[in-house]
Automatic annotation (TrEMBL):
It holds the Pfam family Methyltransf_23. One of its GO terms (molecular function) is methyltransferase activity. It comes from the Bacteria. This is Methyltransferase type 12. Keywords: Methyltransferase, Transferase. The keyword Transferase applies.
Amino acid sequence: MAALRPGYRADIAAGVERFLEPRRTSCPWCGCEALTTRLRTTDLLQHKPGRFVLDRCEGCGHVFQNPRLSAEGLEFYYRDFYDGLGEKKLGETFGARTKTYRNRAESMLPYDRAPKAWLDVGTGHGHFCAAAREVLPDTVFDGLDFTDGVELAEREGRVAHGHRGSFPDLAPELAARYDVVSMFHYLEHSTDPDRELRAAREAVRPGGHLLIEVPDPESRYARLLGRWWLPWLQPQHLHFVPVANLRDRLTELGFTVVAEQHAEPHDPVDLLAAVWLALDHAAPREDTPWLPARPGALRRALRAALLIAGVPALIAGTLLDRFAVRPLAHRLGVSNAYRIVARRG
């Protein structure tokens, strides 16, 4: 952290406002100019400096970051999250989600029980592909990502081939190569979701399938929990597409939506995460290289004391998430994600 601190200090001293593009006056999905502010928040996970706004289009319901991060801003806020300082922690977190990954792979079985080639876009360290191979042992899984995690996934044998770079840029060389292309919690990170969908259409062979899972901006939790709703994940998540919008766009691109799921992709962590984000926000900061100096012993002790005091609330949130809300999540309208399976014509 001491080695990284001077670089972060220089970035912050130059002003984080420079990491934002000019504010849009129209919806990037439909072009409507009727916009309202949906949310104002800060970086609640890494606690890097900056303030962020999500706007909602009154015409189509699309929610998007406005003003949006520039390329330099994305580099600054992604730095040390999935790689660098965050690589080990995130790798362990993703690696422990085998049941979730198997559920995602099984959602394809009613439509293609033995796809030959599968491309996972936004694969990260390839943990989904490794788990999905247990469900589909005869399928060859490739991964695509713009971080060096995909190269790690290839070295570890989690993917047969790792494509590093922008999906739209790589799509022409991947044209009609895959029976299935999956995008699990990927579209919300993209600067241009429509361009990503067109790239997917290019990579999926005719008769093949596109499998998409994204946060659901129409979840009641999004309103009830406000800035403490984890899927907002600012400033990384740039777009939140309502399910009707995605269905319509896929139809325009020549896909037929064969399945729409809300209960299955729900991740029962909303209340636990909200409590944790609030506690972490209230507590003194833990040491990070974007702080001007390492917190002293007193601040570290105060942080530990507050987090320990919050343990009962964390336990209560976990129990409510898993046993009270999860069985009724879709019926209550609080599912935090939806999944779509679409067949290319």
